[in-house]
Design brief:
single chain, alpha+beta, outer membrane lipoprotein receptor (LolB), chain A, 4 helices, 18% helix, globular
Length: 222
């Protein structure tokens, strides 16, 4: 066997060994199913959140605590830079800024809010059903090493949202949701300190209208 043949065989053997030892490509179906299983077995969830909005030449960063509870209940308690409250009891959603003379109320079935799909994470999540064209996003760098990023288009907001990016941790938590709207604006939700099955009373998702505050029915604000 001549030298060229020997070198060629070494190259082929090296490639075969590299291919055999390479990690298989992540399976988006398996990842989505694992996320579904993670959330569908929860009764409640508490997490710290940071919300970053960019659009119309501005950037706004807010933070607070989020509670979710079956079925369809959520409470977003903003603390910084100002107090705000966004909550849903599964039937109505409310948005209130303490000290203001008005509170906004919207029926959940009419709610057009980027936060609303999160209320349904617990109990009946099916990412591949909720997000059209769910796929891996290898072109998007995750915030944390070891995380995977998925992309898709939410069916319920397809006329408003261009795509949604989900960052999935190795434990199959959703660590980040980046929503890109058709107008070019983005809303970036980042979650940390996620605690499962915390004891949270239903009363926490009930809004009591303060005295002297007017209830306005319509779409909620930010």
């Amino acid at each position: 066997m001549d030298l060229n043949s020997i070198l060629r065989n070494f190259v082929i053997l090296g490639l075969a060994t590299a291919l055999a030892s390479a990690s298989p490509a992540p399976d988006v179906h398996a990842i989505a199913h694992a996320v579904d299983e993670r959330y569908n077995h929860l009764r409640s969830l508490q997490a710290e959140f940071t919300e970053i909005y960019r659009g119309a030449g501005m950037e706004r960063t807010e933070s607070g605590t989020l509670w979710l509870k079956k079925p369809g209940k959520m409470r977003w308690e903003y603390r910084s830079p100002r107090e705000k409250l966004f909550l849903s009891d599964g039937k109505d959603a409310w948005f209130y800024v303490p000290g203001e003379r008005q509170v906004r109320r919207t029926a959940v079935k009419k709610l057009d809010d980027l936060r609303s799909p999160l209320a349904f994470l617990l109990g009946k999540t099916k990412l591949e059903k909720e997000l059209q064209g769910l796929s891996l996003a290898p072109d998007v760098a995750p915030l944390a090493a070891g995380d995977m990023v998925l992309r898709g288009i939410p069916k319920s907001l397809a006329d408003r949202v261009r795509q949604v990016l989900l960052e999935i941790t190795p434990e199959h938590w959703i660590g980040r949701i980046l929503i890109e709207e058709v107008d070019g604006s983005t809303t970036d939700y980042r979650f940390s300190s996620q605690r499962e099955n915390v004891a949270v009373p239903d009363q926490r998702f009930h809004f009591t209208v303060p005295g002297g505050v007017e209830v306005i029915d319509g779409q909620l604000g930010q």
